[in-house]
Amino acid sequence: MISPLLHDDPHTVGPFRILARLGGGGMGTVYLGRSAAGGTVAVKTLHTRLAGDTTLRTRFRLEADAARVIGAVHGAAVVDADPQAPTPWLATEYVLGPPLDTAVEAGGPLPEPAVRALGAALAAGLEQLHRSEVVHRDLKPSNILVTAQGPRIIDFGIARAFGDEHLTNVGSAVGTPAFMSPEQAAGLEHAAAGDVFALAGVLVFAATGTGPFGGGAPTDLLYRVRFGEPELGGVPEALRPLLARCLAKDPAHRPSTAELGSALGGAAGVPGDRGAFAVLLPDAVLREIARRSDEVWREPPHRLPPPVPAEAPRAGAAPAAGVSRRRLLAVAGGALLGGGLLGGAGWALFSGPDDNGGGGKKKDAVDRPKPPAALWSAGLWCPDSGGEVMPVGRNLAMRAGIVLCGINAESGQSTWQANIADVWRSATDGTRMYALRDYRDDAAALAVCEVAQTDGQLGKPLAELAAFTGKEQFNQLLCVAGGVAYLVARAASGGRWFLVAADLGTGKERWRGPVDEPRTKGFPPALFGGVVGSRVVVCAGPSEGSKFIGLSAYDKTNGKQLWTMSETFAGAPPTRLVADDHNLYLGAENLTARRLSDGGLEWLFGNGRDTGGSGGDERRYGAPALQDGVVYCVEADRGLVAVDALSGTLNWQEKGLSGRRNKRDAAPAIGKRYAYCADDKGVRAIDLQAHQAVWTYDSQPVVLTADAKGGRLYVRQEKRTLALPLA
User: Fold this and answer.
1) Could you tell me which residues come within 8 angstroms of residue 722 by beta carbon, excluding any fewer than 6 positions away?
2) Among candidates 68, 71, 24, which has minimal Cα distance to 43?
3) What is the CATH number of domain 426-575?
4) Residue 477 pairs with which residues in a beta bridge?
5) pLDDT tens across 405-462, in order?
6) How far is Cα 324 from Cα 482, in angstroms, rounded to an integer?
7) pLDDT digits over 544-554, tens only?
8) Is domain 100-281 classified as CATH 1.10.510.10?
9) Which residues contact 123 (CB under 8 A, 6 or more apart)?
């Protein structure tokens, strides 16, 4: 569980920034850490006071070696380690799932199919470990993490090579009594068969909620492990003979890990069979996995302050009751955790409730109609760009900081998360979600994959393009339409950049056309791109220090460039395509329409209009929205304007607005009765007949998205996302 850092915990360990505590014990502490690239890791350190013990340092090094041996499929991948550092440390991937004991506590004993799949996967992991002549020696429910893809084995603190007695004195029992093997309880050699005994105990626990030798004092447990018979009455009948063999007192009578895995069902339960393991788990366990997945992307609690030194009581005052350090830390931690979770630099994605989503009546609007109550509110953080809510089938997807989330449209609950940090590497066609394979993967080729709507994992590549390097961070998935993915990608040979059309049915490249390389350091080649009729439209970002964006159109069938031009753009550049069959619409110093046929200027709105002061904003006209042949956008701080899309003439403008600062970067959302705009007071609803605001929802909106089909207005704030009824 994530808990606050103490005042004297490190700020960094190796190259990792330390965010929170995950756990600790007599040997060391485990922290939640973040790499410079945004990766989440678990960082285990040896206590400083123990760092001088050469035996413990050696054990720490062996733990790192064992973790590398078991690998990322069955364990937690080792990211980095330095057992020779003044404070030795080991960093592994952060596995999103609860320990098995917590999972059983949350959902009760697992059903037989889940126990079989669990056992087969764990047997495969142990077999991999044993092939390298390493034994775990402390397999127990708390050292097994349950994920949607399968179990992971962790904590190799007392693992060692076969026959290595250097780190353990003969005659001393090291391990956890309830899940020790008899030979381990007697202080004898614990070989591969000892791990099989422990695995059987874990499976008994998974099936019944208790270990095979019950509980109680360690001495009693050690006696029962060595001489008593296991209790298997609650184990499914079909599993009893197999587990009884595994729990034989004589190691020679136990099956091997390969035999055990085969008897349990073979590879069906091995991690990597995406979704197969998750469907076997009780709903309560899946909810716990989801909760922990959410928790890790919240901003961690604040570091606890140092203990407050006691003050001498003032003369004449009764001395106050003493407060222990433990009590002080508990109170401080409770106050910090209970006071809401605050924002951070890209990784703090989920927050607790804030004061901006209540929708209550404002003091200066007593006579106005009340805004509606929120249908739901979720602590989903909005990124700086690319925060639009996207329909995916009957549900939603949205970016929350550095992850992509699936959201139930009815409840606002998170249903899956994909660790896709870069917003330009994913897109939806409205039915499915797609993403580029991680550029840090071993595979060299560029690949487009579908994002599973169950767990957020990337499936097998739908298109794998060997001519383009997969190890380029700024490869960009512009859009997916009609079964074709449109990408901007760097060639594997020569380093040139191309607009590429990839057929997701055949997995092959249809065509390519040259484009400019990224204009701004640290950003992808394009601001946005999309298919409009027979054309693919691409908007390239400005170069360093420039206020010119590039607009281009390509033939959708063969990739031939039809036209290209530059457009001046003051302020934050656009991030979304607003177009119809005729024109592309942009809001900046003026509201403009560019013809899709040749890129020429169709009309310009705003020249000579008195829009008042801009309030320091470089843009007079905000990001536009298009609905039923009308272009809507805010005009400086005067309010909303509605402009005919074909002619560029004013249909109407908002009346009676004053004392508001319109947010130019948030495009309006249009319903049947109201248009919704974002300003410094909240979300205001403008009556499309009366042309004036009728209510304001008190919030701090960053992005507005209208879902006409679902009848919802999605309001994304920095720290929360709300759903309001769309009228």
Assistant:
1) 357, 374, 376, 377, 699, 714, 715
2) 24
3) 2.40.128.630
4) 487
5) 999 999 998 898 888 878 899 999 999 999 999 888 877 899 999 999 988 999 999 9
6) 66
7) 777 788 899 99
8) yes
9) 199, 257, 258, 260, 261, 264
